[in-house]
Write a structure and sequence with these properties.
Shape of chain B: elongated
Largest sheet of chain B: 6 strands, parallel
Strand order of the largest sheet of chain B: 3-2-1-4-5-6
Distance between the termini of chain A: 44 Å
Number of strands of chain A: 12
Helix content of chain A: 25-40%
Largest sheet of chain A: 6 strands, parallel
Number of helices of chain B: 19
Radius of gyration of chain A: 25 Å
Number of helices of chain A: 17
Oligomer: heterodimer
Helix content of chain B: 25-40%
Largest interface: A-B, 153 and 157 residues
Shape of chain A: elongated
Amino acid sequence: MSEHNSSTPNSQPPGPLQGIRVIECGHMVAAAYAGKLMADLGAEVIKVEEPGGDSARQRGPYPGNTHHPEKSGLFLYLNTNKRGITLNLETSKGQELLQRLVQDADALVHNYHPTQMSALGLEYETLARHNPRLVMTSISPFGQTGPRREYTAHDLTMWSAGGLVFLGGAGGRPDLPPLKAFGQQAGFQAGVNAGLTSLGALYGRLRSGKGQHIDISVQECLVAIMENNYIAWPYDHTTPSRLGFRLIPQDVLQCRDGYIYVLAVEEHQWQNAVELMGNPEWADTELFQDFVSRSVNWDALKPLLEDWLQDKSVQEVYHGAQKRRVPFAPVSTMGDLLKSEHLNARGFFAELAHPEGGSLRYPGAPYKFSASPWALRSPAPCLGQHNEEIYGGQLGLSPEELKSLKETNVI
Amino acid sequence: MAEQLPLSGVRVADFTWVWAGPFCTVQLAHLGAEVIRIESESRLCITRRIPPSADGEAGPNRCGYFNQYNQGKHSICLNLKKPEGLEIAKKLVATSDIVAENFAAGVMDKMGLGYETLKAIKSDIIMIALSGYGATGPESPYVSYGPAQVPMSGLASLTGFPNFPPTNVGFSYGDPNGGLHGAFAVLAALMHRARTGEGQYIDLSQWETSVAVLGEGIMAQEMNGSPPQRIGNRDLYMAPHGLFRCQGDDRWISIVVADDIEWHKLCAAMGKPELANDTRFATLADRKQHEDALEAAVTAWTETRTDEAVTTTLQAAGVAAFPALTNKELAEDQHMRGRGFFAELPHPEVGVRQHAGVPWMFSDTPCAVRRPAPCLGQDTEDVLQRVLGYSADEIAVLKDTEVLS
């Protein structure tokens, strides 16, 4: 596999989604991540923002922690490789322009709430009249149907509704609440589901010639990733939680300069870890003779491991363990990742300059394609940056019409 | 005429095991692909060996973990250490569109099933490898289990209560996240093949897909030289934002107030208009500054109520609120049941169990679970006869010589 990064996009073959045209509308993460996944593989994605901008622009991180809608790290990351236009979908003129855009599009992905779709001209039946080949993907908290379709939600309430928050938190601390994962994980998961279903329907369209409407429930996307925790109820009527017993011991333990994640699944891995620790006498006791007893007696084992770790570095323990095929892992900080020899050898981080946000390293290719690589070609659009190019160039509006659209707050 | 699903006619030779790989290929099965899992009796997938098993009775076909994530697939048993077994695997690849595997880097090559070999057999094959570290780089031979992706990606270091160590998220998030990204990548490669006729190799690192969902964390580090701090369930831009205790044993409600208007709605819904006028809570900045007191005020109201009652009251007022659901409540949920989310097909050993189904509804080509997860080796004879053209006599010989085990 050849290594690649963003600095030489012109020398690369095009991405696998070259020629696919996508319209993306909405706010925050879910639709934007679906759009990014496709744009980074070569699709032409037009991001449609309300005149006030995607609300992700109002969230940081910002350079120097100073709020600026063109410098949001969340927005910059989620919107690479897209062209951006503004459009007020609450106006009939705005909806008409969307219909014209849709005529030229293969897919539309959005995360407007089901209660807003009609008022914004985002009904599938209407748009399909303008383009029967359109694949439209609607992401909503609880889906387009059912008694909870109107419920309002944010990432945290979805992580709760999907059963995942109940699993997270501080073990042995019933006084503390369950704990969410950092960031906007419900949005990211919905985004990948929206991306893969959009492509699935586009692939099916090669044969059928027909578009269709895809209804994505964020709640269901999350129930689908509960590992063996959801299925425990239908199978043996147990309810895992953050307070429950762990069959295989695993924990985050402190080293001299950070934290290491310790895990030994197979018995030989534990034996190799014992050897790495210099075969301490305590390792021979019955208390720790197999993974079940080590799990039951974790409160006794943990301080012994911490004793051994306290004067060691994370990297020393990690590489030492892995050389013995022990699956310990570093508890990486963001800074550790940017410095990682392994990730950098693979060319994972991709540097990209944005006119307002400056030059930054972004998380890069999540997968390497041998024939049609992932690539960062352009930074996230500034608000309305491509209005003239798309309304004037693509839709053929005159400068006067554009001026009038601006004056009437349509764009 | 065969049903026309998006991936009808697409065949997947599925060498994956554990979770990330099977979660990738189950998406393809949902979309209509014929997914054939190559298994081994002597090296059972761990998800056929661990709880939960149906009614607590163990057995390779009774495990919920396997039966959840292998719905819609076929299973054949092949002994890949025997040349005849390897030969059958290659014949299967020759009739397939996609090969999926999630062994550590280099294992498929050692087995004689590396990409270059398979490409020589089927020139436009799409092969995806979902390893922990990726196929290249100094740490690529390292051992990786799914749960390690949460700490390795940095998600653990960003998750946790203040003054607590980095905290994992309670499940092996890197696996399904890698699997979904993998399914997306495979579909993109199918689109590319449809346009150009060209197959390719996809090297997916679960470590990297795990970092891909932490963009704001990396950007914070790049912009300001420091990562976001661990702040529990709180949010820098919204308050209240958290889980609040309700009536009952370990019952919690999540509540998010996005702005001042919603704060006033919450105060009215709680029947506490005095809070709306409390200067400590007037603006986001005020609420962030007095967040302990703010959360105590909300808890005082929630803790004497059920999570259900709080949800009904707050949703009626337009405030985002939802209980921290347990698996039992999910299984009993009438909303998802009404949407047809659950897949309940009869399975020969575990009967009808309520599995999580397809989380999307397609208007024209309805994707659904079409068959339950396979019993071990259930489709060996069928695949060898129907797909690969072996005769019954040939199959009998292969069985006698332990090639199909």
